[in-house]
Amino acid sequence: MVERESPLGAAFRPGRHGNLSAGPGLRISEVTPSGIAEAAAWPGMKAALAEVISSVTALSLSAEPNTGDVGPESSAFSIGPQRFLVTGGADLPARLAAALPLEIGTVTDLSHGRTAIRIEGARAGWVLSKLFAIDFHAEAFPLTEGRATVHHDIFAQIQRISPNGFDIYVFRSFARAFWLELCEAAEEVGYEVAG
Amino acid sequence: MLIPCPHCGPRDLAEFSYQGDATRVRPDPASTDMKAWYDYVYNRPNPSGPHREYWQHSGGCRAHLVVVRDTLSHEIISVAFAHAGLNTAEGRQ
Ligand SMILES: [Zn+2]
């Protein structure tokens, strides 16, 4: 099998950068999981879909808009009416497709098409607020929830994975441009790229 | 202007695309009534006040919505999924 290469290329520069007068305010890393899938339900079937994804991934999902869950091997969150983004091991899309009856919904393997970038630290919400027109406060965007949004027409699906940490899923073809933009936005607070 | 998407919650106008007047009713495709087709394609009432419109949350959940918006104040009076089945299956209404 061909080994997957990171789309970040030379833009990925491990180490500390930017204004470090108060130490790095952020840690940025690439955390693209081996398996990424979009699971979609037919109208009225979202709860049934949530149940199937939960059983395959050992997560606890519901049909509520924007909600999600984060586990040791997998994560998932609602990205639209009837739709979830689900991550896991390389076999996740196939296992999900095998477990999901066609009457409930369908699975699209996006493992080749998305890049996940993790941003963690006290200033994560501050920096992301420069890029996205959504509220990153914990009351408005609670732990494990997800948001589907855009950064200048580049789709981004974001999940809060810790009190100060977010995983951002972007199109693989835009990942390097987004990474550079994120690094520039983080200069002000200083950041560490975890290699 | 913020539009409260029934899936995503309140979002900035920049995330949405206008999809047209939702008050229009297409004539019977078999109709040869030129006036009816002309009105359907070109004539818009341009009301001052509440207006029923299609919007897509194109920079978010991608759902198509029916929005009633006041053209004078930009107040959003109501929002629902354009796909009627979704309003009962999902959403915050
Ligand atoms: Zn939405």
UniProtKB/TrEMBL annotation, chain A:
Protein name: Sarcosine oxidase subunit gamma
Listed InterPro entries: GCVT_N, TrmE/GcvT-like
Domain (GCVT N-terminal) ranges: 99-195
Pfam families recorded: GCV_T
TrEMBL record, chain B:
InterPro entries in the record: SoxD, SoxD_sf
GO biological process per UniProt: tetrahydrofolate metabolic process
Gene Ontology MF annotations: sarcosine oxidase activity
Highest taxon of source: Bacteria
Descriptive protein name: Sarcosine oxidase subunit delta
Organism annotation: Chelativorans petroleitrophicus
